[in-house]
Amino acid sequence: MAAALCVFCNRALPMRRIGQEFEATCTGCRRTSRNVLLPALLGLNGGGPPTLPDETPPGPGEAACFYSSTRRATKECQHCGVLMSDVWAAQWGQTTVCLKCLEHLRQKGSDLQFRESLVLWDNVALSLALVPLSLVFWFMAVISAPSAVLVSLWHWNSPRSMVTPRRWRLVLAILLGLLQIAGGVGLVLALWFKGRRA
What we know:
The chain is about 30% helix and about 10% strand.
């Protein structure tokens, strides 16, 4: 028999009336939580998962589903190209894919919507360009300015944040890096010419 469980320590809570909100104190951790027992907990929702759509066998000359040959193919996977029935189709953004391709995209992590973390290279490049502007790390311009330009150009087409998808940080990092490189080269040339005159 199913039981309501404490959200803190996972011990069984005393059962109450279905659909009624109640507060229960756990006998294990002594914490109080607000609960509502829904009919699905006791299997009163008709029993089991929802039924699949009725099978429509393919007629003469019609394509069968690649994964279930007893179903008529109604869609095409835009990732691998197989013909499939509605049961095997999933809408992923603007594309229709089969469930196997959806799992493959999730495991591979190639789709941005499945990525758990993303390096924001525009922020890295901008940070490299801004480091020498502080009075403490001004000497780092020799390394950080060219690095900012290289990182910006190397990751120009890399995925950016879904919140701020524009490239203005990369452009700013390139400009600051080039200005620092030009300033450094100008300073070296000025010191060289001054040394030759003396």
